[in-house]
């Protein structure tokens, strides 16, 4: 579980997210944007962040999600996140990952219509798997956007596997901890080899990076700086 983003990013105008309810495939979708606004023209480059499993307390206020959002904000990278169907104020019900993928693609399409042409993706756990699957859907639907970066934090590759071919030539980075108690480290390791991903790894932190969020923040910030995304 996590706090509402308007509480996490309270303070100055720059820190405050734009919370919007937009029409989606199964009703309204609750969204939050930092350094941009889904109802206004958007910059050419932006980040979409996807949250963990809706049935296990995953929301866009999850601490790993908000850590990624802080990295983006602090480095000047506009970022968007949203609640999957049935979470928070988003309407609809859990759809085994299929409808959730449709929700994510709907948000991407809106971002593109608003002006985004270079898209970064990041996701945690279930959201990490959906982020990987989203690349192929973007390509199949011929959406006019280039996916330039994928970060998957402890992706749920056991219950929501990803076809390695689906990632195309998108640069990908996987971040996980050896003591992950939710997703098998062996499964994540096999996935990393299968997709030839860059690895950011630690022996401790568990699935939820308890006590290790600062390390996660620094790792993602360094990644974006190395790739000259920010």
Highlighted features:
230 residues; alpha/beta; 8-stranded mixed β-sheet; 6 helices; 8 strands
Q: What does it look like?
A:
- With 230 residues, this protein is an alpha/beta fold.
- It has one domain: 3-Layer(aba) Sandwich (Rossmann fold), CATH 3.40.50.1820.
- Helices cover 31% and strands 22% of the residues.
- The chain has helices at 5-8, 63-74, 98-113, 126-140, 185-195, 213-226, and strands at 18-24, 27-34, 45-50, 79-82, 118-124, 146-153, 172-177, 198-202.
- An eight-stranded mixed beta sheet has the order 1-2-4-3-5-6-7-8, sandwiched between helices.
- Helix 4 links the parallel strand 5 (118-124) and strand 6 (146-153).
- The protein is globular.
- The two termini are 29 Å apart.
- Residues 10-14 have low confidence and may be disordered.
Helicity, in percent?
Answer: 25-40%
Low-pLDDT stretches: 10-14
Distance between the termini: 29 Å
Which term fits the overall shape? globular
Q: What is the CATH top level name?
A: Alpha Beta
- CATH superfamily (homologous) name: Alpha/Beta hydrolase fold, catalytic domain
Instruction: Count structural domains.
Output: 1
